[in-house]
């Protein structure tokens, strides 16, 4: 019969507590094993060098990892267009060809129009562009039918079209409908010389930094300058033809079909340098997909109303134009201790990847990987149950390391 286990006394408990308290303050450090293998050493140093180059060149130099940064500045944009142009028997000024006229960051410059003059409320043939509008008799036209893509409500009659021998269903609408009497006029002859003033100011609230894109001069500088990337960077007055050209487009073609051009203003500022080094960078590109016919081009409709013999009439205008979208973005950075410490700690920690990789190679692919595994890892056997006591919290260093008995063992690797 097994002997009864002695019950722990109060003195034993105190010794156990003192042992655990003493072991709590022990310092442990991993042992270092030097492996004399040139190929493995080359891999180890190469990995360390690549990691070091990544952090020094990319993280700290390119990405400026030592800076606190802020993206998306607060921005305001005010625009103003100047110039006149002409079409058949008419001169057009800014009030007529710029929509909307408020001078925001998105506006359109009309370059071609299709006019449907003297429309009045009445009945007339539907446009042949509308599906199922053509007919042979009144039976093909259902009275009261409304096509959401059409121009009005059908009266139930089949009537001759505006020109040719075709017939379409009659509708109650603004007549004549657009397709029946539209006249095209081109306004783009002098449009390349239109000037566009783009006033932009930005603010980075985190760094309390503000700046604008106009030079602070009182000698009438803006009245005689146009934008030049080198000599007149702070004269944000652009010719429409210059914008279209910089976007890689043909002006005449764009003026006929319409399109959307983006004026991108980029404010990337290193606030560790002088504020004079924080300058806007302009780029231009077409935003609508011109190679996809279904979604390329730009046009819109509006009408001008007036009275004729006491009745309301209107001129419907389908306008094709160049829409300008001014887009502002940027990023500001300034030295900060916190991101510097975080990136330095990450760099030092990442250098340890070389050790992990070489350990994996040694333990997996080397011929004498078992010898290395034996030297690197100590295998401990559970102590008998009766030995539990004050030694339970004893320092691991009090146990003799078998590797210390064979300091030349790694010569076998």
UniProtKB/TrEMBL annotation:
It catalyses: Ca(2+)(in) = Ca(2+)(out); Na(+)(in) = Na(+)(out); K(+)(in) = K(+)(out). The keyword Chloroplast does not apply. GO terms for cellular component: apical plasma membrane; neuronal dense core vesicle; postsynapse; receptor complex. One of its GO terms (biological process) is skeletal muscle fiber development. It comes from the Eukaryota. Disulfide bonds join 124-175, 135-158, 141-169, 225-235, 269-278. It is found in: Cell membrane; Membrane. Glycans are attached at residue 193. GO terms for molecular function: ATP binding; extracellularly ATP-gated monoatomic cation channel activity; identical protein binding; purinergic nucleotide receptor activity. Keywords: ATP-binding, Cell membrane, Disulfide bond, Glycoprotein, Ion channel, Ion transport, Ligand-gated ion channel, Membrane, Nucleotide-binding, Receptor, Transmembrane, Transmembrane helix, Transport. The keyword Translocase does not apply. InterPro entries: P2X2_purnocptor (IPR003045), P2X_extracellular_dom_sf (IPR027309), P2X_purnocptor (IPR001429), P2X_receptor (IPR059116), P2X_RECEPTOR_CS (IPR053792). ATP binds at residues 80-82, 195, 299-301, 318. The chain crosses the membrane at residues 42-60, 344-366. Residues 389-413 are annotated as: Disordered. Its main location: membrane. It is a multi-pass membrane protein. Receptor for ATP that acts as a ligand-gated ion channel. Homotrimer and heterotrimer; functional P2XRs are organized as homomeric and heteromeric trimers. Homotrimer. Forms heterotrimer with P2RX1. Forms heterotrimer with P2RX6. Forms heterotrimer with P2RX3. Belongs to the P2X receptor family. NCBIfam families: P2X. This is P2X purinoceptor. It comes from Equus asinus (Donkey). The gene is P2RX2.
């Amino acid at each position: 019969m097994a002997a009864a286990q002695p019950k722990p006394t109060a003195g034993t408990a105190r010794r156990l507590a003192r042992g655990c308290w003493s072991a709590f303050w022990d310092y442990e450090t991993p042992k270092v094993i030097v492996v004399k293998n040139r190929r493995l050493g080359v891999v180890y140093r190469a990995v360390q060098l690549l990691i070091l180059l990544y952090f020094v060149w990319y993280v700290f130099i390119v990405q400026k990892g030592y800076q606190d940064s802020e993206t998306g500045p607060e921005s305001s944009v005010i625009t103003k267009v100047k110039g006149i142009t002409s079409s058949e028997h008419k001169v057009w000024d800014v009030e007529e060809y710029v929509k909307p006229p408020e001078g925001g960051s998105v506006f359109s410059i009309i370059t071609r129009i299709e006019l449907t003059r003297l429309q009045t409320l009445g009945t007339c043939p539907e446009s042949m562009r509308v599906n199922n509008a053509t007919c042979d008799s009144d039976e093909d036209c259902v009275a009261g039918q409304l096509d959401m893509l059409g121009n009005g409500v059908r009266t139930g009659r089949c009537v001759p079209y505006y020109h040719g021998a075709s017939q379409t269903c009659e509708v109650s609408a603004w007549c004549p409908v657009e397709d029946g009497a539209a006249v095209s006029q081109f306004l783009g002859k002098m449009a390349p010389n239109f000037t566009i003033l783009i006033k932009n100011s930005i603010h980075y609230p985190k760094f309390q930094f503000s700046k604008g894109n106009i030079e602070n001069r009182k000698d009438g500088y803006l009245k005689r300058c146009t934008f030049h990337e080198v000599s007149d960077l702070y004269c944000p007055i652009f010719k429409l033809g210059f914008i279209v050209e910089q976007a890689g487009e043909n002006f005449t073609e764009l003026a006929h079909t319409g399109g959307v051009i983006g004026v991108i203003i980029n404010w990337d500022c290193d606030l560790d340098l002088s504020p004079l080094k924080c300058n806007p960078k302009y780029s231009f590109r077409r935003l609508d997909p011109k190679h996809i016919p279904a979604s390329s081009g730009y046009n819109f409709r509006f009408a001008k109303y007036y009275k004729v013999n006491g009745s309301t009439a209107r001129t419907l205008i389908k306008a094709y134009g160049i829409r300008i979208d001014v887009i502002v973005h940027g990023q500001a950075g300034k030295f900060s201790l916190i991101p510097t410490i975080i990136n330095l700690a990450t760099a030092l920690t990442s250098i340890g990847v070389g050790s992990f990789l070489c350990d994996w190679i040694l333990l997996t692919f080397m011929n004498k990987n078992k010898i290395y595994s034996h030297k690197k890892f100590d295998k401990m056997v559970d102590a008998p149950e009766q030995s539990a006591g004050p030694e339970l919290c004893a320092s691991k260093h009090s146990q003799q390391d078998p590797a210390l008995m064979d300091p030349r063992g790694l010569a076998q690797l």
